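Long-time lurker. I teach an intro course on protein structure, and each term I like to show students one example going from raw sequence to a predicted 3D structure in token notation. This year I'd like something fresh instead of my usual example. Would anyone be willing to generate the tokens for the chain below so I can use it in lecture? Attribution to the forum is fine with me.
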Amino acid sequence: MRARKLLLLVFTALMLSGCAPHARLLVWRPAAEEIQGVNKLVILDLDGEEPYGRIARGALEAQFAENRHYTLVDPAVLGTARSVKNGEGTTDVSAALAAAKFAGVDAILTGQVVSYKVDDDEQHDTHFSFGENSGKNKKAGTSFNAFGIGIDNNHTITREASVSLTVKLIDVQSQQVVAVRESSHNVVAQKVNGEGNLPARERVLTELLTACSKDVVTLIAPHYVPATVTLARQLYGKGGDDVRRGNEHAQQGDWAAAADSWEAAVKDNPGNHAALHNLALAAEARHDFPAATLHINKAMASYSATLYHETQKRLKDEQVLYLAAARQVDARRSAPSLVQNQAGPRENGIGSSGSGPQVTPASHESPVRLPKSE
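-- Reply from a regular --
Happy to contribute to a lecture. Here you go:
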């Protein structure tokens, strides 16, 4: 009996290890800087060679609009102040701040396009190689020595693209700079003798500018980032088909359907630790950390797998970051506290994935699907 129990534990450990399936979900991160009292934001054209400053503003506006933490105000409300230049050719920030204060704007985002360029370097190289060979002619019964010269011609095109921005957030009331960020991204690609791919010039600049703009968002706004999580597997026993089905849904980004399958597995077997572990991940995907904590604790009570301990620790860390981001949202607006709703387990326990209050940041939509995981 004891040997059978030990064999079962070994088999379960092997089942949970190996090539475990993975899925992706979105986790919430706080802004790098604590920004308070800012709701309405104007983004000015960045200083720099035209039209790059205007292009950069458009990219920043697109990322902040997608993030939805701030209320973006059209720079047109500042009138001509936004295009006023001083003697050095830079934006007259003082005039912009005065106009922003009159318009009821809380802060302005300004800065400079330091770099926005694509350079191609083309090289033609010729290499000479010398060689000597020797052998015997069996028919003639003679030996010979040969000397040869090889010529290699190489044509190399190197494309290097770079985008660099410096930005600063200025509080309109205090006229103080409350956040500063410099962001740079670059790409280097080569084509040698026609082999290799060079990214299209405009496309690569757009991608690099988008990356810089996302960096700026992370500086002053809570934001989502993708995270890869490990799903538990079940190779035998009650609910195995439901666990596998749930894993497939999660890998496709459909966490709601995945939760339904895992709940069916728990209904068949309340001690199904793989399903309970994965239900904790489904709760995390909808930002219900009290439910996630209870699910992972139940899974560990059934079987103390290394994966479950790792998930428990990660959930604790993620909840801390979530609460930090929620506090930043609460500091920006006056509304029922997200922090209070996520501070601890529900008193009445957990129902199905659809039961209980679904807490969603007011300035974000709860993500449901992500691209399929690799």
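Some talking points for your students: The chain has two domains: 13-29+225-341, 40-120+155-221. Confidence is low (pLDDT under 50) at residues 5-11, 13-17, 335-341, 345-374.
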